[in-house]
Structure formats: structure tokens, C-alpha cells
């Protein structure tokens, strides 16, 4: 049995949790068979409102009592879970969304998600059954609000948090989790590698409304004092069970880093940049044996099937530089991930596939094409990718460029990159910048993919902007606080909130104001609407064509006539 799964009562002071709704909005719930599906309602000054997808959990509910010591309510415990399914081919007993979807069942989680995404329940069930979508929802994380990762749904964003041996505390990591979900992170990964890994995760799990992912090999390595050669299958397995009991919803497993692939990375510019990948490469080489993650993969499937933990098959050989993108090592591993996808699914375990990394724009599409081809369209979950290596301190931007492109091509979840990438551990501010940046990339892709509800928000914001409803423009923004702050830097007075200009152009040069004036003038004088113009053009065309018919429908006049006319004109 895992030790210490109930750490409450210890002294981890959580000081800086931001409570209450994002400005200009309020929490609202839609009842679905007794389940409360959350939305963030933005009420506009023109009487309209928009209900937005809401990842923030009870923290933004003004009426919720938050007690981080006690954790969030264990809401999903009250939902009726179907009986586990015994899978014929492998004999695995699977209590998973995949097994249930294949059996034709719509689980409470699926019904919740359908309402949340605004799609039919059958679409949710069928995409999960096909393995094209996953619902990471460990039975032992009943505090989580179900969400789905798949290309038929809104593109999702993951935020990485966690301490390192160099910096951070439990309190700071809980604060980052609440902060990341407030700004729209759909899942959280606790990538802690420093002290109190188990306890840090327990605090995050009990307080996270979003699914939580981990990389168990990190904690396993910590247990052997950072010496990869001392890792064993047994130690790793026990760590997986320990984390499974705590409620981890998805686990990164770098089982595609095979012994024979390690030399393929030798001549790269940046070698192996994945932590999990480098740890497994070190183990394989030291023992000259095949990776225990690969050789014990079916045992791992049996464990994950019991809790309904989703595999996130790790890209241990992803490129860490533009020069290494789409190379032999990367794609050799991807092929193996495809093989493992089939095995996991035959045990009823849900699977997604992790992707790169650093990839120039012209090499991005190839990644999605091969992933879909080799991995049966399992949801793709990519780290950016960074479209160039030359901008440390701005890698949230270099990577959001790649992220938008790869999401448009079919990636289901984007793993954020913060401004601190390659430089240090992100703090709370970096977490917000990373999340907002990735919400932009994800939403841009939703628009391009024609996601049914995506453009509503753009249209509402643009309308507010054109009508100089400044409060509405701020409140519809991904980051209302910063939008308002930037506006108010130059025009803080309340009357400026309805003014027909901002400090960019000033009152006389505001093009949207001038354009609105033109429109008003035209309307007042019954002039030139587009309909008027169209009608006038049509009438003139008719007249011309009547004239042409009257002249005998001749395209060319006889030469004599033309010559005479030309002479007359001189
Ligand atoms: C795989 C990705 O995970 C990120 N990463 C690794 N550890 C942490 C952490 N503790 N906090 C935030 N991000 C982390 C790296 O920046 C890399 O981009
Ligand atoms: C998309 C993605 N890829 C990889 C990892 C794990 O990190 P690492 O491979 O460095 O151990 C991650 N957290 N997210
Ligand atoms: S981010 Fe820092 S610690 Fe991590 S691989 Fe790069 S240099 Fe090493
Ligand atoms: Zn990098």
C-alpha cells in the first residue's frame, strides 16, 4: 500500500490563492441529470450574455466555501459508475471510459462533457470508443470536472507546474495550479522533481478541479537518489501504484525509447532533451537491456485499467532544436508508440501521444500526419512546438506559433511553454502568461477548424469594440485584468469607458468613430447602404443590356463605322 496518502494537517501555508470570479463574469451551472456543469457567464451592457467554457472550478464561485486543507468536494463519488468490463482478447478487467464507450454506454462523465462542449452525448461516446478522444478521470480523483481531449472537440491546454531541487514550495505549487486553471488551463501536470514530491502532489490532487498528469519516472528516480542505473521495474511499478492511489489522471510513460534507438540521437545538435527520455536512455545503455517500460508494458496496462488512468505515451526522443526536427530517432520512437497504442487499447486503456518540441513551420504537418497514421488517430498532445530556437525569454511566443499550426492540423491538446523555458522554473506570473498565450493558439485553431461556438466570442468582442462598449470589450477578453489596465494607463476616468476613441488615435483620428459617423450620416440621409448600391448597379446593367439589344446585339461594329467614328473624334 502506498504510504501517506492523507497528508492533511501538515503546515503548508497556502497564502496567495485568488478567489472570486474573473472580473466581469460570474459562475453559472447547467443541471444535467443532477450534475452541475459549470460555465462562466459574461453579462454585457447591451443586455446580452455569453456563457464560456470554464476550467476554474469552485475557486471562481463567489458562493463556494474554499478550504484547501479539506480539499474540493468529492463530487464524482456520488455519480453512478458502470460495472467494469472484462475484455475478451486480453482478459483485462477495465473500468475505463474506453471500455464503457465501446460497450455503447454513455457514462455520467460523457454526459457532463457533452453539455460542457455543447455537442451530442453520442459524439463524445463514439470518439472515445474509436480512441480518437480520451477522458482522463481516475476514479480516485473525484474532485475533478470531466473534460475531453480529442480533435473533434475544443483544443485543450495543459499547464506544467511542480517544484525543482533548486526552488519552490508546496504552497507556491498549489497557487500555480489554482492560477493556471483560473486562466483556462484544461489540465495540469505536476512535474515536481525536488523535495516532498508525494506531499506536493497530494495537495495539488485534492484541490485541483482539472485532471492532473505526472511523469512517474521522475519520482522513481528521486527514490534512487537521482541515479538512473539503480531504477528497477518493481520500484517503478510501486511508484505508479502510489500515484494511481492518489488519483493521478494521466501518466507520461516513455516506453518508446528503445535500446536500439539511443545511438540514433548521438549525432544530434541537442541530443535527448526529454527528461524521461534521457533517464530511460541512461538505464538502457548502463544495463544494455531493453527498457523495462517496454518489456513490462502489459502489466502497466493492467494497473492503469483498474483506475482508468490515461496513458500519455512520452516523446522521449523529441527534437530539442530546429536542426533535429523530424529525424530518424524521433520517428522511430513514434512508430513504437503506435505499436504500444494498440496494446494499451486492447487492454481497454485510454491513450494519447506526446509530440514535439522544436520544429520549423514547414515540418509541422508531417508530425500530425505520421502520428495519425501510426497511432490510430489517438489524441496528439504536443509541447509547442517552438518554430525557432533564437528567442529564449520569448519561447511562449516561438512555441505558440507552432502550437497554433499543429492544432489546426489536428493536435488535440497543447502543452504550454512559458517565457522561462530553457532559462529557469516558471513562477506564478510566467504560468499566467503561458496559459493565456496557449489559449490564444488553441482558440485560433478552433476558429480555423470551424468549431461551432468558437466565433461567438470573437463576434461579441468585435461588436463591443466597434460600439465602444469598453467594459464589454475588457470582460470578453482572455485576460480582462490586463486589457483594462492597459486602457486605463492613459485614460483612467470613467467617462472614457464609453468614449468613442482611445489614446492610440485620439478623438479626431479614431477610424472606428469616423466609420460609425459615416454610417450614421448615410442612414440619416437615406443614402448608400450596400443594398442601394446593389440596386443601382443592377438597374444600370439592365439599361445597358437593353441598349445593346436595341443596337442588334453586335459585339464588334463594322470596320467602316469604327474608322468613321475615330476620324470624327480627331
Ligand atoms: C516537458 C516540459 O516540461 C517543462 N517542465 C519540466 N518541469 C517543470 C516544472 N517543474 N514546472 C514547469 N514546467 C516544467 C519543461 O519546460 C519542458 O518544456
Ligand atoms: C507534451 C509533453 N511532452 C513531454 C512531457 C514530459 O516531459 P519529459 O519528456 O521532458 O520528461 C510533457 N510533460 N508534455
Ligand atoms: S531546461 Fe535547464 S535543466 Fe532542463 S534540460 Fe534545459 S538546461 Fe537542463
Ligand atoms: Zn527546448
How would you explain this protein's 3D organization?
Mean pLDDT is 94; it is low at 1-9. The longest helix has 22 residues, at 428-449. This protein has helices at residues 97-102, 108-117, 121-129, 170-182, 197-207, 216-223, 233-246, 275-287, 292-295, 297-307, 328-346, 364-374, 395-408, 428-449, 454-466, 470-476, 480-490, 506-509, 511-524, 530-550, 559-569, and strands at residues 25-32, 35-43, 49-53, 85-86, 93-94, 133-134, 149-150, 156-161, 187-190, 212-214, 250-253, 310-313, 351-355, 380-383, 413-415. It is an alpha/beta fold and 570 residues long. α13 (395-408) links the parallel β14 (380-383) and β15 (413-415). It has an eight-stranded parallel barrel, surrounded by six helices. The radius of gyration is 29 Å and the shape is globular. The protein has 21 helices and 15 strands. The structure holds 5'-deoxyadenosine (5AD), (4-amino-2-methylpyrimidin-5-yl)methyl dihydrogen phosphate, iron/sulfur cluster and zinc ion. Zn(2+) binds at residues 358, 422. GO terms for molecular function: phosphomethylpyrimidine synthase activity. It catalyses: 5-amino-1-(5-phospho-beta-D-ribosyl)imidazole + S-adenosyl-L-methionine = 4-amino-2-methyl-5-(phosphooxymethyl)pyrimidine + CO + 5'-deoxyadenosine + formate + L-methionine + 3 H(+). Catalyzes the synthesis of the hydroxymethylpyrimidine phosphate (HMP-P) moiety of thiamine from aminoimidazole ribotide (AIR) in a radical S-adenosyl-L-methionine (SAM)-dependent reaction. It is an enzyme of class 4 (lyase).
List cofactors, ions and other ligands.
5'-deoxyadenosine, (4-amino-2-methylpyrimidin-5-yl)methyl dihydrogen phosphate, iron/sulfur cluster, zinc ion
What distance separates the N and C termini? 106 Å
Q: How does the overall form come out from the CA principal axes?
A: globular
Main β-sheet, in a few words?
Answer: 8 strands, parallel, barrel
Helix proportion range: 40-55%
Query: Beta-sheet strand percentage?
Result: 5-15%
Question: Strand pairing plus helix content: what structural class?
Answer: alpha/beta
Rg, rounded, reads 29 Å
Low-confidence stretches: 1-9
Mean pLDDT: 94
Amino acid at each position: 500500500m502506498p504510504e501517506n496518502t492523507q497528508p492533511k494537517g501538515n503546515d503548508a501555508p497556502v497564502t496567495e490563492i485568488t478567489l472570486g470570479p474573473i472580473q466581469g463574469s460570474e459562475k453559472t451551472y447547467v443541471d444535467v441529470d443532477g450534475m452541475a456543469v459549470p460555465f462562466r457567464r459574461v453579462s454585457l451592457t447591451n443586455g446580452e450574455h455569453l456563457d464560456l467554457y470554464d476550467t476554474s472550478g469552485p475557486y471562481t464561485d463567489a458562493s463556494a466555501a474554499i478550504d484547501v486543507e479539506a480539499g474540493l468536494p468529492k463530487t464524482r463519488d456520488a455519480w453512478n459508475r458502470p460495472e467494469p468490463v472484462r475484455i475478451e482478447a486480453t482478459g483485462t478487467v477495465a473500468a475505463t471510459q474506453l471500455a464503457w464507450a465501446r460497450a455503447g454506454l454513455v457514462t455520467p462523465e460523457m454526459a457532463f462533457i457533452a453539455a460542457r462542449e455543447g455537442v451530442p452525448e453520442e459524439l463524445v461516446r463514439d470518439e472515445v470508443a474509436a480512441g480518437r478522444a480520451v477522458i482522463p478521470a481516475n476514479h480516485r480523483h473525484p474532485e475533478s470536472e470531466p473534460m475531453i481531449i480529442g480533435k473533434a472537440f475544443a483544443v485543450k491546454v495543459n499547464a506544467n507546474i511542480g517544484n525543482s531541487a533548486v526552488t519552490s514550495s508546496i504552497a507556491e505549487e498549489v497557487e500555480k495550479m489554482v492560477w493556471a486553471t483560473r486562466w483556462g488551463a484544461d489540465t495540469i501536470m505536476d512535474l515536481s522533481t525536488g523535495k516532498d514530491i508525494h506531499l506536493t502532489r497530494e495537495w495539488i490532487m485534492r484541490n485541483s478541479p482539472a485532471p492532473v498528469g505526472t511523469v512517474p519516472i521522475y519520482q522513481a528516480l528521486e527514490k534512487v537518489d537521482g541515479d538512473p542505473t539503480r531504477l528497477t521495474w518493481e520500484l517503478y511499478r510501486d511508484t505508479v501504484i502510489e500515484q494511481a492511489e492518489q488519483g493521478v489522471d494521466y501518466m507520461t510513460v516513455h516506453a518508446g525509447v528503445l535500446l536500439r534507438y539511443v545511438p540514433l540521437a548521438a549525432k544530434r545538435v541537442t541530443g535527448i532533451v526529454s527528461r524521461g527520455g534521457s533517464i530511460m536512455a541512461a538505464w538502457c545503455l548502463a544495463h544494455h537491456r531493453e527498457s523495462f517500460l517496454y518489456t513490462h508494458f502489459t502489466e502497466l496496462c493492467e494497473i492503469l485499467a483498474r483506475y482508468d488512468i490515461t496513458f500519455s505515451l512520452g516523446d522521449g526522443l523529441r527534437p530539442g532544436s530546429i536542426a533535429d526536427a523530424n529525424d530518424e530517432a524521433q520517428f522511430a520512437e513514434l512508430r513504437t508508440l503506435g505499436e504500444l497504442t494498440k496494446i494499451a487499447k486492447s487492454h481497454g486503456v485510454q491513450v494519447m501521444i506526446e509530440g514535439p518540441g522544436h520544429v520549423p513551420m514547414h515540418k509541422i504537418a508531417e508530425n500530425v500526419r505520421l502520428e495519425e497514421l501510426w497511432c490510430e488517430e489517438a489524441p496528439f498532445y504536443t509541447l509547442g512546438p517552438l518554430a525557432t530556437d533564437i528567442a529564449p525569454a520569448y519561447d511562449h511566443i516561438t512555441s505558440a506559433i507552432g502550437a497554433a499550426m499543429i492544432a489546426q492540423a489536428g493536435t488535440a491538446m497543447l502543452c504550454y511553454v512559458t517565457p522561462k523555458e530553457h532559462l529557469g522554473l516558471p513562477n506564478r506570473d510566467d504560468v499566467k502568461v503561458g496559459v493565456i498565450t496557449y489559449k490564444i493558439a488553441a482558440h485560433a485553431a478552433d476558429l480555423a477548424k470551424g468549431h461551432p461556438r468558437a466565433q461567438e466570442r470573437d463576434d461579441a468582442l468585435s461588436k463591443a469594440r466597434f460600439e465602444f462598449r469598453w467594459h464589454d470589450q475588457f470582460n470578453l477578453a482572455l485576460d480582462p485584468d490586463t486589457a483594462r489596465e492597459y486602457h486605463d494607463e492613459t485614460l483612467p476616468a470613467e467617462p472614457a469607458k464609453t468614449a468613442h476613441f482611445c489614446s492610440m488615435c485620439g478623438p479626431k483620428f479614431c477610424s472606428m468613430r469616423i466609420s460609425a459617423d459615416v454610417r450614421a450620416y448615410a442612414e440619416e440621409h437615406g443614402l448608400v447602404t450596400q443594398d442601394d448600391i446593389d440596386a443601382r448597379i443592377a438597374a444600370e446593367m439592365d439599361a445597358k443590356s437593353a441598349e445593346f439589344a436595341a443596337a442588334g446585339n453586335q459585339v464588334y461594329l463594322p470596320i467602316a463605322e469604327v474608322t468613321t467614328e475615330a476620324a470624327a473624334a480627331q
